[in-house]
Amino acid sequence: MHVLIICESFPPETKSASTLYYQLAESLVKKNHRVTVVTRMPKYNLADGATTKNVPRRENLDGIDIHRLQTPTVARNIPLIRGFEHFLLAFIFFWGAFAIKDVDVILVYSPPLPLGIAGHYLGKIKKTPVVVNVQDLIPQGIIDIGLLKNKFLIKLSKMMERFVYQKADYLTVPSDGHVTYLLKKGAAPGRAATVHNWVDVNIIKPAAKTNAFSQQYKLGNKFIVSFAGTIGFGQGLSVVIEAAEILRNQPDILFVLVGDGVEKKKLQDRAESKHLNNVLFIPTQPVSIYPQILHASDVCLVTLRKELTTPTVPGKLASILAAGKAVITSLPLGGDTPKIVDKFQCGICVKPDDSQELAKAVLKLYNNRQLGEQMGLNGRRAAEQSFSRDSAVFAYEEIFQNLLKGWNHV
What is the pTM of this model? Predict the structure, then answer.
């Protein structure tokens, strides 16, 4: 089976999508499938040693045939310009994938949403079934947090959303709440399924707290509360700075924020203006270092802004569980992430933007280390049972094979 994967980000970029899709592609190759990836030339969050100039446009990496396309660089902190970039990506990716022959099934990563449109027309031309993996529910997610306000653009985005969901031969999503949402937006019953964002439990697993990362940044014996990932509009990380201010008289508790993004400078300025010595900002780290960040932590944070009403399960959750760390979530309590945390008893859930409750949760785990350790053990068990790489690869393989057996491209 020849699987064509279309995704915006792929190694050496270090985004979670890059890691997930590299692992999926690598596993499919190991199962004797042919995999071609169409992606863009890397631009952001590059792994150590990688530059925009030393990455080949065509490469075979671990059996994966990679086609990297040149795309324009735009101001990504301006939503309107970034939206225009997404349309350009769809056009460029369509033509980049057009020449690839003998494709059996197409897998598209969304967002950006226009890639789903490009995938649909590629499938039409190639007479090939198309699976769209919907990770973020766009446009509703960016409407909720105030990044998209123009009525015309909202209407246009919702039309695109309905088109993608209705035209895809199959849709995969990271949580059951996503399935319900997609059905309301026009997805055909029986053509959407949950495939949890996975983690390689053989790579990310419990390990000693002291490691090269903790030593490099002199974390010592502090009680580490970490966030690792994009520091952007949607993460709602101002609540972490506020919680740190509440706990400023707890000298053993240190908040560590690892990553970069459009909101980082604002958060740094806020922490500095409050003279907070219990907040440490660290730049984005290579993928190979990410497990060490988790190991060095006592508790890990998953945060989103309260305005976000769409169901969501941030990809970092699976890695936190696999590392055997307790998690504190600060996001809408009715969403899918708190349901997972409650189901597996692997952490504490607090309301988003509630710094008092977040501070209480941190203090509770600081004062009761045994509780945190038990939550970590529960999380590790959950990762092995429900979030493993092998189970996700098996699910995709089964979806592809069922499409090829009995479905005609619409």
Answer: 0.82
Distance separating alpha carbons of residues 29 and 81, to the nearest angstrom: 37
* Per-residue pLDDT at 239 exceeds 80: yes
Same domain, 6 and 111: yes
204 assigned to some structural domain: no
173/287 same-domain check: no
pLDDT at 407 over 60: no
Identify whether residues 265 and 234 lie together within a single domain: yes
pLDDT band at 76 (very low <50, low <70, confident <90, very high): low
Q: Enumerate the β-bridge partners of residue 38.
A: 6, 67
Q: What's the number of domains the chain is made of?
A: 2
CATH code for the domain in which residue 251 is found: 3.40.50.2000
Helix axes 355-367, 238-246, angle to 10 degrees: 60
User: Residue 312: which pLDDT band, with cuts at 50, 70 and 90?
Assistant: confident
205 within a domain of the structure (yes/no): no
Phi first, then psi, for residue 224 (nearest 5°) are: -95, 125
Q: How many Å apart are CA 213 and CA 155, to the nearest integer?
A: 46
Alpha-carbon distances of 330 from 288, 300, 308, rounded to whole Å: 27, 11, 12
Q: What is the pLDDT of residue 126?
A: 92
User: Are 259 and 381 in a shared domain?
Assistant: yes
Residue 278 sits in the same domain as residue 155: no
Domain that holds residue 381: 212-386
